[in-house]
Design a protein that fits this description.
Elements lengths: L3 E11 L2 E10 L2 E5 L9 E4 L4 E4 L1 E6 L12 H11 L1 E6 L10 H14 L3 E4 L1 E2 L5 H6 L6 E4 L12 H10 L4 E4 L3 H10 L8 H5 L2 H18 L3 E3 L5 H6 L7 E5 L1 H5 L5 H4 L12 H13 L4 E2 L8 H4 L16 H10 L5 H15 L16 E11 L18 E11 L2 E5 L2 E2 L16 H4 L2
Parallel strand pairs: 1-4, 1-5, 6-7, 7-8, 9-10, 10-11, 11-12, 12-13, 13-14
Antiparallel strand pairs: 1-2, 2-3, 5-15, 15-16, 16-17, 17-18
Helix pairs in contact: 5-7
Bound molecules: (4S)-2,6-dioxohexahydropyrimidine-4-carboxylic acid (DOR).
Length: about 450
Amino acid sequence: MTHRTCIRNARVVLPTGIESTSVLIEDEQIAAIDPASHSRADETIDASGLYLLPGVVDDQVHFREPGLTHKEDLEHATRACAKGGVTTFLEMPNTKPNTITQTALDEKLRLAAAKCRVNYGFYIGATPDNVGELATAQRTPGIKIFIGSSTGNLLVDDQQALERIFAETTLPITAHCEDESTVRANTARYEGTSDLPDHSRIRDHEAAIVATRRALSLAKRHRHRFHVLHCSTAAETELFHEHEGLITAEACPHHLFFHTGDYERLGSLIQMNPAIKSAADCAGLWQALKDGLIQVIATDHAPHTWEEKQQPYPQSPSGLPAVENSLPLMLNQVNQGRCTLEQVVHWMCDAPARVWDMVDKGRIAAGYDADLVLVDLDLRRAVKHDEQLTKCRWSPWHGETLQGWPVRTWVRGQTVYAEGGIDDSARGAEVKFDHARGGYWATL
Ligand code: DOR
């Protein structure tokens, strides 16, 4: 029997703007916007005073399963997603084993079907010699290349190998852009350092710009769709002007909100790759988002345990958790007048869904999946380590009071999070990718 839920009187963020209306869910899909007032519903929710958004699509997370589950796992990570209004994630291949074959990809999808409370997809990772796997990979948003190394041992730095990957594959490509040679030379220069701010001198502006320029050149020469992950400098965004139509780019909350002046306060909790840069870079990334040079906000959620993070630099690992706070961080910015709710929905929901050719995701429209998040823009709440659902149970935003929080999250029509808790019986589904759509620019 069809189950119908009607969300009444919400301020709904539609593709055409914000409207006070009702949304009817039938089983897993949005059946109608502004349904007839007599339409029957099994459940009616009065959402007066609240905003209804498409669920957040986070296209860059590290959920550590299989192999690194002392840091994070699919169960904890997707409970955290549900609380944060993230209804779909795309996960990176630097797990153990690395996701570099169809077999490893299928195994992750099998684990995810059993454990994930939200919808899921997994990238296939590039190595210098798996181009055959990359060329035939199925059930994936695309190919991830570590052009510079980060956590784990994935790295493709060799020019010939990079040329082959861009020449012989058709899936969209995305990359971690920090130049390996620059990072190695800087590491030698700062050999023996235990001064954390040196992390930003080792993984410096030059490292980011050189690698991004190199990747853009590959994309342009091979006419290959390409997405720049976690852009960290204002200078990289200057490079995007001449690539409109072919490439898309992304910024992460930590690069938008933290700068090198924050190391003193937060220490290795904000040690990340690419490294945190200057306050001017934060401002440049914001400007690039507003100018449309960066289209996507994603978290790069990359948890390590508190104990691991407390080791002295450089033993302290790079990465921080963010899926449960990324939307509140941005809603707080809406409240502060820095951006609009429509912009947030574009950057966090619609744009990433389109970059990766997701079927029926990222919008509130009839026929789309009922992945929805109801938010209270007036609710003020502090981020606290011990309230985090992510397995590592810490946040670099601990102690900050944010205004604007999810109060309820639906994944394919089922409530996964409501004030008071997570429904652990809920399961997400594998995201379908229709790469013939041609990505962000083709669907404008
Ligand atoms: O700081 C980072 N940590 N950056 C990455 O790109 C990878 C991530 C991780 O997996 O820990």
